[in-house]
Amino acid sequence: MTSTQLNLIPTEHLLKENEIFGYGKELLEATGFSSFNVVYDSKINGFNKSNFNASVIGKQNILTLIITNDNYIFGAYHSNIPSLSSFQVAIDSKAFIFALSNGLKIFKNIDSGSFFNGNQPIYEVSCAFKINDPTKQSIICAYAHRYYQGLNNSTVFAGNDTFITSQLIALELH
C-alpha cells in the first residue's frame, strides 16, 4: 500500500463513492501534481475553524473538496495558504475554484484573490464561497461570476447559492 493509500483509508471510500477519482487525474493535471495526502477531513478532525486552520495554514499546494448534503462536490486549489490576520486575503495567481457537477469545470480568479481569513466561516475563498459547519448554511458569493473567468452561473457548485456542507476535505498535493 502506498503512503497516499494509507493516508486515505478513512476518506478513500467517500472520495470513490462520489467519483472524485473519476476527476482526480484531471484535477491533479490542472495543478501539475500527481499525488496527494489527506491533511484534513471534517468527519475525522472535527468541523471547526481552528482544526481546519491548524491543518492547512503554512502549507503549500492545498486542494479543498466541499461535499454538500445534496452530494454536490466543488472546491478550490491554493498554491499556498499563509498565516493571515483577520480579514486579510492571500494573493495567489495559481489559485482556482472548481465544480464536479456534470464534469470537471475549473474557474480562474481574475484578480488573484484566494484564501480569506474572516472570523466566521470555517473556510472562505475570496469572492467565491463561505463554508460553515453543518448547523449553518454555507454560501456561494452572489457576485462570483464577476471574479472568476468562465463562471456564468454560481449554481454549478451546489445547485443553489445556499446549501448545507456535509464534509470538508483538504488534500496536500505532491
Distance between the termini: 17 Å
Count of alpha/pi helices: 6
Number of strands: 12
Helix content: 25-40%
- Computed over alpha carbons, the radius of gyration is 15 Å
Estimate what percentage of residues fall within beta strands. Answer: 25-35%
Backbone structural class = alpha+beta
SSE order, one letter for each helix or strand = HHEHHEEEEEEEEEHHEE
pLDDT average, as an integer? 84
Describe the sheet with the most strands: 6 strands, antiparallel
Uncertain runs with pLDDT below 50, 5 residues or more? 1-9
The strands making up the biggest β-sheet line up spatially as 1-12-2-3-5-6
Number of spatially distinct domains: 1
Estimate the global geometry from the Cα principal axes.
Answer: globular
Notes on the structure:
The chain is an alpha+beta fold. The protein has one domain. It is built from six helices and twelve strands. The strands form three sheets. The protein has a six-stranded antiparallel β-sheet with strand order 1-12-2-3-5-6, with helices on both faces. A hairpin with a 3-residue loop joins strand 8 and strand 9. The radius of gyration is 15 Å and the shape is globular. It starts with a helix and ends with a strand. The relative contact order is 0.21. Residues 1-9 have low confidence and may be disordered.
Entry keywords:
174 residues, alpha+beta, six-stranded antiparallel β-sheet, four-stranded antiparallel β-sheet, 12 strands, 27% helix, globular, TLDc_dom, TLDc domain-containing protein
Describe the structure concisely for a colleague:
This protein is an alpha+beta fold and 174 residues long.
